[in-house]
Specification:
Number of helices: 17
CATH superfamily: MFS general substrate transporter like domains
CATH class: Mainly Alpha
Shape: globular
Radius of gyration: 20 Å
Distance between the termini: 24 Å
Helix content: over 70%
Length: 417
């Protein structure tokens, strides 16, 4: 791929890759905002109490990410072979959309959870290959910029279908629709948006780096996985980074996935939570772009560590959360950090790994992220179940952020292998 200047215009493959972030961010927006509220109404309508509903929802999130965490490295290793990346991406893309349609029309909370888990697995698997495509569309010197643009436009773009669905829900009485029906229609709008906005990626993004096809793809993939484990153990810079990422991204993902569920538990109004999280998207747009520029000036790792410190403050405030104003303030703080810490983590990892094995390495990147996403909601769920309050789980996340900060510092002190 031809090297281009950091300040030059985005190429067509870069724009098409960024547009997929716009596409799938619409799904994670409803996963964060409206789906937990809709699930809570289904669960409590069936007789579950508030704390149990929180526990069940957290467990469902944990199950979905745990399943994919086990599969990600193997799928990634297979995807590194010639012309395989987009094929495997397509299989899980179809699963994600189909699962979304099915949970939209699920009659009860249990069937809703089953189809949601399928859709969430598809979404998360697609992200493994989508992240790995970053090295196919740009160069190392532009990677921070393109990655942060992906998150930035994902945040702002996801607001379009979300606002359309939200207006439908808020005006359901005037339209003569039951709120449950209006909510289901908003889910359908999101699935259509996701599918349509993914078309440019299929047309313009192609696998540039690959390994030669082998006669026994699966067995060779397992053999390569063993070798990759050994290489990662020897590369201290990469090893400390991925372990640190596991810790701090645990807290980030947990705050994203459990925000409305936790807010509902402490008595925050549902409409206020949704609007506050919508504000998070708008705040995240300029802040994500700014984080790319700041990373160029001060260094990628420096910016990630700053974001971790802010998240530690969010955990402290979240522990004592009991008013709508505090929820709004925390939403703004999360918006400042959320896109930057994820985008810069992705691009920094992309610079450390072998290009022709990007899918396999991003499979490991995903397994660390997904096991973290499994652990965090599980902590919240356990606190809700045993202590009858999730606030202790929120406070405990500060420990994970601290460990992540220390490990990143160790990574910075080691040279890449």
């Amino acid at each position: 791929m031809k090297d281009t200047d950091q300040n030059s215009r985005l190429t067509k493959p870069e724009k098409s890759w960024i547009l997929y972030d716009v596409a799938n961010s619409a799904f994670i927006m409803i996963v964060t905002a409206t789906i937990p509220i809709y699930f809570r109404s289904l669960a409590e309508g069936a007789g579950l109490d508030s704390a149990t509903a929180t526990s069940v929802w957290g467990s469902a999130t944990s199950i979905s990410v745990l399943i994919l965490a086990v599969l990600s490295p193997v799928l990634g290793a297979i995807a590194d072979y010639e012309n395989m990346k987009k094929k495997i991406f397509t299989v899980f893309f179809a699963l994600a959309i189909a699962g979304g349609v099915l949970f939209t029309f699920a009659p009860g909370w249990l069937s809703f959870l089953v189809f949601f888990i399928l859709s969430r697995i598809g979404y998360s698997a697609c992200n493994v290959f989508y992240d790995a495509m970053l090295i196919d569309v740009t160069t190392d010197d532009r990677m921070d910029r393109v990655s942060t643009y992906g998150y930035a436009f994902g945040y702002i773009g996801s607001c379009i279908p979300f606002i359309a669905g939200l207006l439908l829900i808020l005006n359901c009485d005037a339209l003569g629709l039951p709120m449950a029906t209006a909510t289901r229609i908003s889910f359908v709008i999101t699935m259509i948006w996701w599918a349509v906005m993914s078309v440019p990626l299929y047309r313009n993004v192609h696998q540039q780096y690959s390994l030669p096809r082998q006669p026994h793809v699966v067995s060779d993939a397992f053999r390569r996985l063993a070798g990759t484990f050994k290489k990662m153990r020897k590369d201290k810079k990469l090893l400390f980074f991925i372990l640190g990422y596991f810790c701090y991204i645990d807290g980030v993902y947990t705050i994203i996935s459990m925000a409305t569920s936790y807010g509902g538990e402490v008595g925050i109004d549902s409409n206020a939570m949704v609007l506050a999280l919508l504000l998070t998207q708008f705040v995240a747009f300029p802040c994500s772009i700014a984080s790319g520029a700041l990373a160029k000036k001060y260094g990628t790792m420096c910016m990630i560590r700053i974001f971790i410190l802010i998240y530690m403050g969010i955990c402290v405030v979240g522990y004592g959360l009991d008013t709508e104003l505090e929820f709004w303030i925390l939403s703004v703080c999360v918006g400042i950090c959320q896109g930057g810490i994820q985008a810069l983590s992705r691009s920094h990892f992309g610079k450390l790994i072998p290009k022709e094995e990007s899918s396999e390495y991003f499979g490991f990147f995903d397994i660390f992220g997904k096991f973290a996403d499994f652990l965090g909601p599980l902590i919240i769920s356990a606190c809700a179940f045993f202590l009858h309050s999730s606030k202790y789980g929120v406070l405990s996340l500060i420990v994970l952020f601290f460990i992540g900060f220390v490990l990143l510092t160790l990574s910075d002190k080691n040279k890449a292998a």
